[in-house]
Design a protein that fits this description.
Strand content: 35-45%
Number of helices: 3
Number of strands: 7
CATH superfamily: Cytidine Deaminase, domain 2
Number of domains: 1
Helix content: 10-25%
Shape: globular
CATH class: Alpha Beta
Structural class: alpha/beta
CATH topology: Cytidine Deaminase, domain 2
Length: 144
């Protein structure tokens, strides 16, 4: 895995929402999609995890994913990121995460809720088996 020279600014409300969702479900991986519109507004779309072992894996509910993608298109949004949590491990892509990643131009966010005072969020681009970590900065920009 290599560190990228690139950085991405995420709105603080989005990061707060991701942390809240992960900490509210500490026994299973949460997952979902994040959109961005042409004005730079971001929106979080939680999607149910349908994996058999939700403690160690995630699988976006197919119907919910299609519905969310349809909603994004309707509102002029694009898919900016896919997120999920690792309840018991660091926020690094697992071999399964890498093998199942299909959107090479979409940011991949992994949340490790950890203790209430030490949650961690990291971002990656995954191209085949190449992983590029992206620095995440916080901005006060609002979401809708």
């Amino acid at each position: 895995m290599r560190k990228s020279l690139n950085a991405i600014q995420l709105p603080l409300p989005i990061v707060d929402e991701l942390m809240r969702l992960a900490q509210a479900s500490p026994q299973e991986e949460i997952c979902g999609l994040i959109s961005r519109d042409r004005h730079g507004l971001w929106k979080c779309y939680p999607v149910s995890n349908r994996a058999e072992d939700r403690k160690h894996f995630f699988m976006l509910d197919p119907k919910e994913q299609i519905d969310v993608m349809r909603t994004m298109r309707h509102h002029g949004e694009e898919l900016a990121a896919i997120y999920h949590s690792h309840p018991d491990s660091p926020p690094l892509p697992s071999p399964t995460d890498i093998a199942q990643h299909e959107y090479t131009d979409v940011l991949y966010l992994i949340i490790s809720p950890g203790a209430r005072d030490k949650p961690e969020l990291r971002g990656f681009y995954i191209h085949g088996h190449a992983i590029e970590e992206v620095a995440i900065g916080l901005e006060e920009k609002s979401t809708r």
